[in-house]
Amino acid sequence: MRQVLFHIPLSWLHPGWDVPVYGYGLMLFCAFVFCGALAKRLCRREGIDGNLIPDLIIWLFVAGIVGGRIVFVIQYWHEAGFADRPLWQVVALWDGGLVLYGALIGGLVGYFSYAHFVLRKQGVSNWKMLDVIAPSVALGVALGRIGCLFTGCCYGNVACSACPALHFPLASAPTMKMVRLGYQTPLGFQWDPNTREVEAVEPGSAAANAGVRDKDVIVNAFSEMNGDFLPILRLADLATTPGPLKLTVRRNGETITFDPFEPRSIGLHPTQIYETISMVLLLFFLLSYYPYKRHDGELMVLFMFGYGVHRFLNEMLRTDTDPVAFGLTLSQNVSLLMFACATVLAYAVWRRPVIVQGTISHP
Fold first, then answer.
1. 3-state secondary structure of 329
2. Structural element, H or E, at residue 196
3. Which residues pair with 229 in a beta bridge?
4. Which alpha helices (DSSP H) does 115-192 contain, by range?
5. Residues 304/135, Cβ–Cβ less than 8 Å
6. What value does the CA radius of gyration of the chain take, rounded to a whole number of Å?
7. What pTM was computed for the model?
8. Contact 257, 316 (CB under 8 A)
9. Would strands 354-356 and 359-361 be described as parallel, antiparallel, or unpaired?
10. Contact 223/243 with Cβ under 8 angstroms?
């Protein structure tokens, strides 16, 4: 997790004008560029004017972001406290906060709007354009989930000891969710606020690895801020202080200062990485299948089936969403709907004329 990747130095113009580059925003920009390049390349295969793609991408991109943000705000209205936030934070995309299915629905609205106003006049086949869009969307989802990893959203549930796992920083949504669920303490240990005595240390935590033990008495605590370790005035602020900590304790009459350690979440399923890998594999499958398709529209059908199955299963490993209907999360319900829509679309596609060596023959 790394929300800000780097800063563009502009302090030579004015002090404090360094511009942060957010990982989430950068991945959205990469998706915009690379998906556009892939779509233009696929347009050449279909005999479609590639100059239509830049405008189409803008329509899809804007409509997708609006749709994804609307669904996110609705889904997390209470959990994220949007009712108590200023309006500008509701649209603060640089902090993350898009629901992919909302983005897909918004993108669908954007596509049909563009098709009505532009593609229809150009005589472009919607079926062919769907086959251009499908691999591009798979690539976009793969890149977008890397942005989710940078931001720390769309995180998984507790991973088993034999599973791959990610550990998130203290001041992050995954760690706070694990604390609220009672799976861990914020710092990896508990202490009595009156006596300052450590009551319990979580095995395998950063605190335990640093050497903190039961019965230690906290003398001083320091947090890394702006490159320096500054004293924490109240121990009650320990659990809300981001960054590495440095503790000084008294043990058996001896004063011990531990090396700095950074409290993190317990190991969670890397669902963002799983989705990126899954979408890369789906992208390769769609591109490999492309020369062998027999009907225009087949690639979109395959994408909808593939993503619907993946998202339903991947959602089972996540813990950032709650069930909304039938004991399933919102995304799982939409996945079932997507699967049903793909079935209907498949029937329509396979009734279309068969493509044979660049020509069309009727079955």
1. strand
2. none
3. 224
4. 120-122, 126-151, 173-180
5. no
6. 25
7. 0.85
8. no
9. antiparallel
10. yes
Query: What is the rounded CA–CA span in Å between residue 25 and residue 133?
Result: 22
Closest of 19, 27, 24 to residue 2, by C-alpha? 24
CA distances from 107 to 59, 116, 135, 150 (A): 8, 14, 15, 23
Q: Which amino acid is at 27?
A: M
Q: What angle do CA 289, 118, 93 make, to 5 degrees?
A: 75
How far is it, in rounded angstroms, from Cα 167 to Cα 155?
10
Length of the chain (residues): 363
What CA–CA distance (Å, rounded) separates 141 from 268?
Answer: 21
Between helix 126-151 and helix 23-46 the angle, nearest 10°, is 160
> Does an H or E element contain 258, and which?
none
- Tell me whether strands 4-8 and 19-22 are parallel, antiparallel or unpaired: antiparallel
> Which residues in 90-110 are b (16+ Cβ under 10 Å) and which e?
eeeebebbbbbbbbbbbbebb
Q: What is the dihedral of CA 228, 232, 233, 236, to 10 degrees?
A: 160
Neighbours of 199 (CB within 10 A): 12
Question: Would you give per-residue pLDDT tens digits along the chain (363 residues)?
Answer: 788 888 888 777 777 778 888 888 899 899 999 999 999 999 998 889 988 999 998 999 889 888 887 887 777 766 656 666 666 666 666 555 677 888 888 999 999 899 989 988 888 999 999 999 999 999 999 999 999 999 888 899 999 988 999 999 888 889 989 988 989 888 888 888 888 899 999 988 899 999 999 999 998 888 887 667 777 867 777 777 777 888 999 999 899 999 999 889 999 999 999 999 999 999 999 999 999 999 999 999 999 999 999 999 999 999 888 888 899 998 999 999 999 999 999 999 998 888 755 444 444
Helices (H), 191-270: 206-210
Task: Give the β-pairing of 4-8 and 359-361.
Answer: unpaired
Across-strand partners of 189?
Answer: 201
